[in-house]
Amino acid sequence: MRYGLFSDVHSNLEALEAVLKAVEKEGVDQLLCAGDLVGYGADPSGCLSLLKEKGVHSVCGNHDAAMTEKLDLEWFNPQARAALEWTSKQISPMERTALENLQFVWQNGDLTLVHGCLHEPEQFHYVLNLSDARESFRLQETPAVFIGHTHSPGIFIQEGTGFSFQRISEWLLNSRCRYLVNVGSVGQPRDGDPRACYCVYDTQTRTVQLRRVSYPIEQAQAKIRRAGLPEFLADRLAYGY
Ligand code: ZN
């Protein structure tokens, strides 16, 4: 089985289109998204309908939860909150219901998908370091777990009682180890590289590849400015932070 995985689309249609185009060339069997379909960007409905059209299965991110009763807007910083208030007025009742129906965790035999961390997934804890990763590994039931939320791609590895982190773009999975893979962000990368992130997980070759693809950033920025969203949300796309 070959999976195409990505996360944190954040209403950035230009980035999502570039990722889907790149992933289609990879010949994947299933497309999965680790949440935060909306928020920050200016094209929530465009992204939601494209994700639906392509049959992408998603879990619930904190920005998605904020469109429902599941999470209070107080949770967010002022710029994120402003974008969520705007998003809430843009999406249709059907789109809100689709966000409401997203599960916090999705699992099959090969992998688990969760937005932030397996520990209290509905609290959206960030996995920023080895000690955060350990909390998630404690609850991990599949060889690999795929997350987003921090917008910074990389692979946490557990081998026995040892934990490590790698920013490497291609990894051969060892059956003695367990993996917690952060697939980065499609619509708002924060690791200093503005290109959109995605991941290919192949269970046959036992490889995880973290990939990047360029997209027309200026178009996404222009839409954010035209919508009257905070200027910073447009600016940061160019820096990848
Ligand atoms: Zn996010």
Order of helical and strand elements? EHEHEHHHEEHEEEEEEEHH
Largest sheet: 6 strands, mixed
The percent range for helix content is 25-40%
Strand content: 15-25%
List of distinct ligands in this structure: zinc ion
The radius of gyration over CA amounts to 17 Å
Unreliable residue runs: none
**Spatial gap, N to C terminus:** 33 Å
Structure write-up:
The protein has helices spanning 13-25, 44-53, 62-65, 78-90, 93-100, 130-137, 217-226, 231-239; strands spanning 2-6, 30-33, 57-58, 105-107, 111-114, 144-147, 154-159, 162-166, 170-172, 177-182, 196-202, 207-213. Helices cover 31% and strands 23% of the residues. The chain is of the alpha/beta class and 241 residues long. Strand 7 (154-159) and strand 8 form a beta hairpin. The protein is globular and about 50 Å long. Helix 7 (217-226) packs antiparallel against helix 8. It has a six-stranded mixed β-sheet with strand order 3-2-1-11-12-9. The structure holds zinc ion (ZN). Zinc ion (ZN) is lined by residues 8, 10, 36, 61, 63, 149, 151.
Short description:
Helices cover 31% and strands 23% of the residues.
Layout of helices and strands:
Blueprint: E1 2-6, H1 13-25, E2 30-33, H2 44-53, E3 57-58, H3 62-65, H4 78-90, H5 93-100, E4 105-107, E5 111-114, H6 130-137, E6 144-147, E7 154-159, E8 162-166, E9 170-172, E10 177-182, E11 196-202, E12 207-213, H7 217-226, H8 231-239
Parallel strand pairs: 1-2, 2-3, 5-6, 6-10
Antiparallel strand pairs: 1-11, 4-5, 7-8, 7-10, 9-12, 11-12
The structure holds zinc ion (ZN).
